[in-house]
């Protein structure tokens, strides 16, 4: 059995002036914060620049035109449906070392009122309906999400929420404005694509199991995941789709034959690190992201039918959930992660999202439990210790 933290991939290299930051210094609600295992980016939009809000397909050209000098970056969010974005254009991005682990232990954490949306019974019914559709074909997989609505007894700040997200296994810690009065904040394990020079990398994930505090049980779950026919099938659908989308751009593409088992603080995931060398060096990170998104990891297969099922069965619009969060610089280099393990915060309100991949032999109760486990990434950060 192979058990690992996410494998090393091409990323921006730390610079000599980088210093560890316990929290984003100078962070405002308008700041885009993206923390990775090797660096942290803080990007504030220039005063004379309004955020880009175009569809994903239009962004490669628009960002190339807007980033007219070296050192500039475009950073922010793209919606799940890829029809909208919110990218800040910054001529003075701040780079630092990775965010430190949580240090704030004496904060007065809010009291919460929590409402599932939809209720668990409704989510189970949606999963069974999706399985009926899969049984009659041609739908092979669909990712169904649910949400939690949380109301705090006091206003929330991005800084205090970010204080509790970093962990040794966290890959992408992020906060970015979705509007003038709301932000998306989260800790995603999954890289959609990075591009640095002619090197490209992606780490698709699909197939998951909840971790246990008991080491023996925890390792048994990891082993069971690696040998699960259901999860391996679900994972292969994603890997095949990602490799097919990247192949036209690459002169070399390495796709491992078997997935790894990757640990996050709350979940085991099947993951496959894919690397390649671009055939055309002018293909920027956003061009690659547009070719890949949405993968079956967040949508389904076939994509068009899965989108229809999601629209029909999910009562809450995804917005930026399961979309993209990341950055691109003037050279076309960049990193884009899937906006997972996240929530939208506005004032005293917070809406969390989590989803599970549904295939023919899914167990509805197990899929519901998977979403509960994924919620726990943010619920733990909020000091909410309960399954919902």
Automatic annotation (TrEMBL):
UniProtKB keywords: Isomerase
One Pfam entry name: Chorismate_bind
GO biological process, one term: salicylic acid biosynthetic process
Catalytic reaction annotation: chorismate = isochorismate
Keyword GTP-binding attributed: no
Keyword Isomerase set for record: yes
EC number, UniProt record: 5.4.4.2
Gene Ontology MF terms: isochorismate synthase activity
Database matches in Gene3D superfamilies: Anthranilate synthase
Domain Chorismate-utilising enzyme C-terminal: 121-374
Family note: Belongs to the isochorismate synthase family.
Protein's UniProt name: isochorismate synthase
Gene, per the UniProt record: dhbC
């Amino acid at each position: 059995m192979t058990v690992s933290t996410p494998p090393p991939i091409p990323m921006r290299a730390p610079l000599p002036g980088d210093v560890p930051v316990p929290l984003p210094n100078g962070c405002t609600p308008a700041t885009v914060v993206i923390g990775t295992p090797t660096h942290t980016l803080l990007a504030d939009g220039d005063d004379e620049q309004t955020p880009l809000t175009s569809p994903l397909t239009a962004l490669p050209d628009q960002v190339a035109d807007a980033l007219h000098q070296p050192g500039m970056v475009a950073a922010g969010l793209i919606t799940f449906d890829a029809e909208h974005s919110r990218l800040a254009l910054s001529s003075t991005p701040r780079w630092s070392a990775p965010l430190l682990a949580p240090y704030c232990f004496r904060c007065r954490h809010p009291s919460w009122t929590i409402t599932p949306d939809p209720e668990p019974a409704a989510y189970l019914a949606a999963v069974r309906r999706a399985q009926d559709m899969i049984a009659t074909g041609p739908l092979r997989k669909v990712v169904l999400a649910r949400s939690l609505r949380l109301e705090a007894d006091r206003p929330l700040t991005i800084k205090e929420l970010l204080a509790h997200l970093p962990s040794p296994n966290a890959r992408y810690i992020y906060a970015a404005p979705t509007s003038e009065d709301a932000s998306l904040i989260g800790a995603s394990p999954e890289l959609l694509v990075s591009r640095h020079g002619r090197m490209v990398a992606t780490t698709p994930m699909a197939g998951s199991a909840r971790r246990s505090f008991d080491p023996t049980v925890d390792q048994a779950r990891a082993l069971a995941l690696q040998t699960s026919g259901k999860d391996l099938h679900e994972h292969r659908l994603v890997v095949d789709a990602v490799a097919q989308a990247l192949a036209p751009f690459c002169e070399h593409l390495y796709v491992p034959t078997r997935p790894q088992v990757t640990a996050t603080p709350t979940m085991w995931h099947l993951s496959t690190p894919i690397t390649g060398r671009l055939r055309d060096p002018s293909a920027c990170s956003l061009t690659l992201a547009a070719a890949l998104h949405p993968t079956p990891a967040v949508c389904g297969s076939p994509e068009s039918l899965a989108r229809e099922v999601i629209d029909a069965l999910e009562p809450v619009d995804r917005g930026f959930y399961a979309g993209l969060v990341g950055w691109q610089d003037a050279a076309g280099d960049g990193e884009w992660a899937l906006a997972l393990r996240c929530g939208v915060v506005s004032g005293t309100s917070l809406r969390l999202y989590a989803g599970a991949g549904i295939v023919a032999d899914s167990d509805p109760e197990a899929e519901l439990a998977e979403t509960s486990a994924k919620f726990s990434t943010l619920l733990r950060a909020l000091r909410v210790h309960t399954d919902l």
